[in-house]
Design goal:
Strand content: 5-15%
Structural class: alpha/beta
Number of strands: 11
Number of helices: 23
Largest sheet: 6 strands, mixed
Helix content: 40-55%
Shape: extended
Radius of gyration: 37 Å
């Protein structure tokens, strides 16, 4: 600071201040130098007076106001413009002031706290610690910005993308809707029946807010389309373009405008009626009279790309290095083996960790086992679907085996173990869950109380009910420590504490014959090994027994597991 434009002290003067004093600190030596009657003492006294003047204002002004005042009073901001790279220097100062305003709004702190905050950013090497960008409106660069930020600006060429993206309606899905004139629109909730219903106020507010949101979307679209000076490029994607074009050809009216779900629903009806849109009309197999076509002063050009054509273009781009290599190999320069080897290494380089890029950061136990199981073992077997069917599809027809298993697991998770005294009592619990809408009647009908009673009346079932610490459907997320590190998640069907050790149970509902039990156990053993390791890691208690229980056969199978822990 003393050597900068704030103090204007030379290196020799600062050295003399230090040598002429016996004070331990430099600040003490500088105060002692102010007592010197000479030229250096006079200069030190002037700076010390100026410093006290700045300090007095620091106690009166807010952080950002003081910093701007200091830059103005010292002339440092103006001085930066005359220094090399002055434009960049002033931009960096403005970024610093922006950081100060953000810090002051949250912390309402002093200058010292802000400087500590800046040092912390430098120490953590934050991405926000880079130099400020100094682009002006006249710079010939490609700019990417939101439509709101482009308001009031114009550009020679504008690309308006994402016109096929659905409008954001998440604000209409909140439990409580609010409107400045209509008031509040809550959901009706019945805690006894455990149901929710839309109220008339909510329906009215939702429809009113939806129409107002569409008006705002239309205004934003107008702003975006009027930013171009010379050329406007608009892009959008649709899943069924011929069918969409036929919808666009339908007569327009205000009621149809408010049914739009994307910007293309407004632009498409205009496009198909343009004189230059003959290709779109042929694609949609529609015919318009000449007097129904729009002849505009602007020039329109329409291009349609299919998924196949884009994939073909991508393939051609990816094949260009190989084609170039072939040309080099057969050219007159093939004698230069060093050049050939150079291009060969460049074009055939492979990322050494390519397999890791295909692995998700979090993987379920079933997916992990699927990667580990040999593909020949899976031949002829049926893997479960990744996505469950929607609820409205399960109410009609028969439940799939997977849906039956899910329903049974749900009942075993929430059933009252103290009431597992007879099949009749289990049937009463099923009826109560149906009344509470925890399960539907169809799901209750596929569960056999006698089968469930056999499980709880078996040796392992009685041990389970007598335990003081039981977990059912216990979820876990744990780190896997191997060559492909990541997170593994899963759900343990049931585990209970017995004589200081865990007993882990995994009950299965799939059909299996007694002869196939060994192979059936081997198929599920890797999954249970993962569960065992996770349970021991999370609780620090040894798993003494791992069991598979077949509800189909009413049989308990003891699963041997190894002790090689794959988790950290």
């Amino acid at each position: 600071v003393l050597r900068s434009s704030f103090g204007h002290f030379s290196a020799d003067e600062l050295t003399d201040i230090r040598l002429n004093s016996t004070e331990r600190t430099y600040s003490g030596a500088f105060i002692r130098a102010c007592e010197d009657p000479g030229k250096l003492g006079k200069k030190a006294r002037l700076f010390y007076k100026k410093l006290n003047h700045w300090r007095s204002h620091m106690r009166k002004l807010s952080l950002t106001d003081f910093m701007w005042w200091l830059l103005s009073d010292s002339g440092f901001y103006a001085l930066c413009s005359a220094m090399p790279g002055g434009r960049q220097r002033q931009a960096n100062i403005r970024i610093l002031m922006k950081r100060a305003a953000e810090f002051n709004a949250v912390n309402d702190g002093a200058l010292f706290e802000f400087l500590t905050y800046i040092d912390l950013i430098k120490f953590n090497k934050s991405n926000d610690n880079g130099p400020a960008r100094t682009l002006s409106e006249s710079d010939d660069v490609v700019r990417m910005m939101s439509i709101h930020k482009s308001k009031g600006l114009e550009f020679p060429i504008v690309i308006l993308a994402g016109l096929g993206k659905p409008f954001n309606r998440r604000d209409l899905q909140t439990p409580l809707l609010m409107h400045r004139s209509l008031g509040l629109g809550p959901l009706f909730a019945d805690p006894h029946l455990r149901i929710k219903r839309h109220t008339l106020a909510r329906i009215a507010i939702r429809e009113k807010s939806r129409i107002e949101a569409l008006s705002e979307e239309m205004r934003i679209l107008y702003v975006a389309m009027t930013r171009a000076q010379q050329k406007l490029i608009m892009t959008g994607t649709v899943s069924d373009l011929p069918g969409k074009i036929k919808q666009w050809n339908e007569p327009m009216h205000p009621g149809k405008l408010i049914q739009a779900s994307q910007a293309l629903d407004w632009l498409g009806p205009v496009w198909v009626r343009l004189l230059e849109a003959e290709g779109l009309r042929k694609l949609g197999e529609i015919t318009l009279r000449t007097e129904d076509l729009i002849e505009d002063q602007s020039h329109w050009e329409f291009q349609v790309w299919s998924r196949a054509s884009l994939l073909q273009q991508e393939k051609e781009v990816s094949d260009q290095p190989e084609k170039l290599r072939e040309r080099l190999m057969h050219s007159e320069e093939q004698k230069n083996q060093a050049v050939i080897r150079f291009f060969d290494q460049r074009f055939h380089w492979q990322y050494p960790y390519q397999q890791e890029t295909k692995m998700p950061g979090k993987i379920s136990v079933s997916e992990l086992i699927k990667h580990d199981i040999d593909s020949s073992f899976l031949e002829g077997s049926t893997l479960p679907q990744k996505l469950a069917k929607p609820l409205f599809q399960t109410k009609k027809g028969h439940l799939t085996p997977a849906e039956k298993g899910t329903a049974l697991h749900y009942f075993l998770q929430y059933a009252d173990l103290k009431r597992m005294t007879s099949p009749a009592e289990i049937h009463r619990q099923l009826s109560e869950m149906v009344q509470k809408e925890m399960i539907n009647q169809q799901e209750a009908d596929v569960m056999n109380p006698e089968v469930i009673w056999q499980f709880y009346n078996s040796s392992i079932g009685r041990r389970l009910r007598s335990s003081q610490k039981i977990f059912r459907e216990l979820p876990f997320v744990i780190e896997k420590a191997d060559e492909q590190a990541g997170l593994v998640q899963g759900v343990i069907d049931c585990c209970f504490l017995e004589n200081g050790g865990w007993v882990l149970i995994d009950y299965k509902t799939d059909a299996v014959s007694p002869v196939a039990l060994p192979r059936w156990m081997e198929r599920h053993r890797p999954q249970l090994e993962q569960y065992r390791q996770a349970l021991e890691k999370l609780t620090g208690i040894h798993v003494k027994e791992v069991l598979l229980y077949s509800l189909y056969l009413n049989r308990t199978v003891n699963v041997p597991v190894n002790q090689n822990n794959k988790f950290k």
